[in-house]
Structures are given as C-alpha cells and as structure tokens.
Amino acid sequence: MKVQPTNWIFASGQAWKLYVVVAGFGGTLGCFTLALFSLGDSGGEFVAMVVCGLFLGCATFVWFTAVLRCPSCMAKLVWTMASSRPHSSWIIDLAALDRCPACNQKLDHLSRPQA
Ligand SMILES: [Zn+2]
Fold first, then answer.
1. Shortest CA distance to 99 belongs to which of 81, 82, 115, 87?
2. How far is the CA of 35 from the centre of ligand 1 (A)?
3. Does the global pTM surpass 0.70?
4. CB-based contact 103:72 (threshold 8 Å)
5. Does any domain span residue 1?
6. For residue 52, is it within any domain?
7. Do residues 56 and 79 share a domain?
8. Range of the domain at 22
9. Would you give the end-to-end CA distance of the chain in angstroms?
C-alpha cells in the first residue's frame, strides 16, 4: 500500500523546492560562519562573506516566493500567505493548506491520477 503524501507541497510534487530552500539557507549560514571565522584575518573576507550570505539568503527567499505555486491558478502561495497571515504562523498555515486561498481549488489531489 502506498503512503499518501501528508501535505499539498509533497502531493503536488513541489517538495524538491523545499530542499533547495534548505540548501540555500544552509549556504547562507555557512557564509556567516565563515565570516565569523575570518574576523581574525584582514577583514576584507568578513565583508565579502557577509555580503555573499545576505545575497544568498535574499535570493533563496525571493526564489521560494516565486516558485511555490498553486498548481491550478499559479498563485504565489508563499507570498499570498506571508502577506495575509500573522508573521508567527504563516509558515505553519502555508504547510497546512488544503485549499488554494486564491482559487479555492483543493491543493492536495491535483497531481494525483484521476480516479
Ligand atoms: Zn489556486
């Protein structure tokens, strides 16, 4: 028996985008860590690493808001949720969505084979 995906991000085949985002933010943390370790050196590397980290973090977030979409109406769901929900809970609400807030289509069965 196949295990059904537990939320729409997995069900609609967009889970790989989460891994890219984790990798992107991991790289951001890596840059900041390298920046800290380079503090004892000349100082030029510190600025370069912080700039790299900020750029990577911003690029990752912008990419994430642009690519995680409703498979039906292509609404940018990260942006929709981030701009309409409280800062403390929009990520949880986003992960727990079962209908698109823009078009009201059920999100979690769109990519499953038609019965
Ligand atoms: Zn939609």
1. 81
2. 41
3. yes
4. yes
5. no
6. yes
7. no
8. 14-67
9. 16
